[in-house]
Amino acid sequence: MSIAADSTTRLWALVAKEFWRKTRRRLRAGPAYSWRYTGRTPERVLIAPPDLRLADPQIALEIYYGRFPLSGHLVETGGQSPFLIDVPNRGWQRSLHGFRWLRHMRAAGTELAAANARALVSDWIALHGNRISGTAWEPATTAKRIIAWLQHSSVVLQGAEFAFYRSFLRSLAMQIRYLRSLAREMPDGKDRLRARVALAFAALSLPAPVSALRSATRNLAEELDRQILPDGGHISRNPMAVLEILADLLPLRHTYANQAEQPPLALINAVERMLPALRFFRHQDGSLARFNGMGATIHDRIVAILRHDETAGSPPLHATHSGYERLAMGGTTVIADTGTAPPIEVSNHAHAGCLAFEMSSGRQHYIVNAGIDTYGAADLRPLARATAAHSTVTINDTSSASFAHSQRVSGMLGSPLYAGPRSVPTQRFDKAGIHGFVARHDGYAQRFGLHHERELSLSAGGSILSGCDRILRAGKTPIKNDGRDLVTIRFHVHPDVQLFRDQKERLVLTGPDIDTWVFISPDVAAEVEESIYFAGLGGPCRSRQIVLSFKASEISEVHWQFSRTRIISRLDGERA
């Protein structure tokens, strides 16, 4: 069976599995199962776990006045309960029902904020607490809500009457039983892991038998061992997943300690591996490299997590299990994707960016990937995930991996990546004064019989980044000039960087900082084209890209170089 046929078979098997999963979920939400979620109501909340996510008292005030800024979308309720408003934005709905915004009420620290939090929780219980359906009861959203209600129970219950106190605990217990019944059947990935985290929080924060804590701990450990790779990355290969999971695991570790319970070894080990992994993906300005679903970075969020990193030091240079390499020297940082496609079950946000890289110098990014607009229009996602949106090679203007965009599939799975690179052999060649690697992927082998090999080396104290891109024919046979061998190398330039040609016709990149970089490509003439940077804090914005185009049948190896040099005034050259 061919690779493409095998991938298609796996895709449709996953569709069938998801159909069956959703059918079982509907059955479990029906009246025949609802009695299973009733039972004894806990007497009290024993402990409110900490929340490391950033909080803003101003947002609490906005919410008080009926303005809900969630998931990059502002909704004004006009005095109505937000749970009565039909908002078509699914991300906003999930954020609303996930209740993470309670942290802003806690940060406000006022009786008014506490009363508002209690009123909103009371609204949810009255409108959704006894009707298991819709976005409010999606398992992933339920897991977020359980964690948020426990973490901010002191705010919600501040000054509460006994009737509300009991109603809150009764609803919380019902949600926990519901999530426990579905956790094992949830789709693979961080949402399933978060469900296990939520159930561990519940077993620690509420009165529960020893067996419940033991079971929650065991299930959590199994999920951590399966999803967190030996180098600390996540099986989805998304840097954002590392940040999100740490934001849950660190408070959970703290809660185990506060309750004088021994956290599972898998939790301790996962945190110790993931903190260096988070530093691995950071550029010197604190932002995370834009690979496989990563968009704009909220820098303070990372700082809040890394305060707990007791192993602080130089980031590792290899993330072989996650499939990334890092070159760092003299204030220059290069991060490259050298991994195969993630498992199809967790590939809904994965990109076709094999062998793409990003380069920063000091606190300025020069070469980037387009990233994604986290809260933007879904119509732009396919563009952001394509190979052409990355600083790597495309062949015949196609991506090195395929995405499932059909309505039949997207209705069940979203848009998973399949038929991507299966083999990416990588070799480091670090030595005195040089950090480098060479890697090759087979993402184009099935369609065009071609492999892309990229060699990168950082030298001269971080002032020279040398690259070589080779197009190789499978079996070492000659590449035919059949119109199917057009190669394009792209280097996407950060929108804050100015790009112009100097008097020697070299391309010069200058940023707000003092560093200036010159690009040369002796084998192929460089052109400058328009591009889009999706990962801006304010949303997508215009940018530019350096483009090298050639036919593989005529040129099989292209060398290029970025070199840091003296400041060159724009008056010395013409704008590119």
From TrEMBL:
Question: Any keyword Translocase?
Answer: no
Q: Where is the Heparinase II/III-like C-terminal domain?
A: 314-561
The keyword Signal is assigned to this record: yes
Q: Per the record, a Pfam family?
A: Hepar_II_III_C
The residues forming the signal peptide are none
Give the matching PANTHER family.
HEPARIN-SULFATE LYASE
- In Swiss-Prot or TrEMBL terms, this protein is called Heparinase II/III family protein
Enumerate the UniProt keywords alphabetically: Lyase, Periplasm, Signal
Supply the source organism for this entry. Aminobacter carboxidus
User: Where, per UniProt, does this protein localize?
Assistant: Periplasm
